[in-house]
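Regression test case RT-17, inverse folding.

Input:
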């Protein structure tokens, strides 16, 4: 049965951090209060000409769209002193791509979370000493990777933000005009820098909690065939 334990150990080391990261991404991406605070911080009402109330209504519809609760994101609102369509064709096409990424992300999150839970339960009953080691190794690997990634990203956020888009998108629809496109006016680079930092903090907190749990686990071996 040792080979099964080793297999589940590898699955856990790979899948658990992915599941945790995607859960944190979902939490950060759909926190409506975070959006409200950033709109105020970056004076988005003045930049877009859209009132705070309408910005929040647009945000709610946008998040529903990304969750798959809306078929489209064609919205009309008061911009300045006239009613306009909020997102134009290029923005709509990009948002469609973003929604597809979220859809795939949900699938990966659910799959890796399921595999992680099954693996942890199996190892817990078969070899608790190995479980302790796996959690410690997983935590330390993620702390190292997070440290390196943090240094890279915040040394030049725009550079790696661009790489991120080039990797995930097969087109250049994400290249929007901040003078005319409301989507990028609502979500400037600083917004994504803030949300990335927030995800880092959430993930770091959970990894440290996981490491603490691992260190507190008893060292007495419990193994069954």
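Golden output:
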């Amino acid at each position: 049965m040792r080979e099964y334990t080793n297999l589940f150990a590898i699955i856990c080391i790979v899948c658990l951090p992915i599941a945790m990261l995607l859960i944190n991404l979902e939490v950060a991406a759909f926190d409506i209060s975070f959006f409200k605070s950033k709109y105020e911080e970056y004076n988005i009402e003045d930049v877009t000409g859209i009132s705070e109330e309408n910005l929040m209504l647009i945000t709610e519809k946008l998040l529903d769209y990304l969750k798959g609760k809306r078929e489209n994101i064609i919205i009309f609102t008061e911009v300045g002193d006239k009613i306009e369509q909020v997102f134009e064709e290029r923005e709509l096409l990009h948002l469609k791509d973003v929604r597809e990424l979220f859809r795939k992300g949900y699938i990966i999150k659910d799959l890796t979370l399921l595999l992680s839970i099954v693996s942890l339960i199996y190892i817990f009953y078969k070899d608790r000493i190995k479980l302790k080691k796996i959690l410690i190794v997983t935590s330390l690997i993620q702390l190292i990777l997070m440290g390196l990634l943090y240094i890279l990203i915040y040394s030049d956020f725009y550079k790696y933000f661009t790489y991120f888009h080039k990797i995930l998108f097969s087109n250049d629809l994400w290249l929007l005009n901040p003078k005319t496109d409301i989507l990028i006016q609502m979500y400037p680079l600083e917004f994504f820098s803030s949300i990335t930092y927030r995800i880092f903090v959430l993930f770091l907190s959970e990894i440290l909690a996981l490491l603490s749990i691992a260190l507190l686990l008893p060292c007495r071996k419990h193994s069954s065939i």
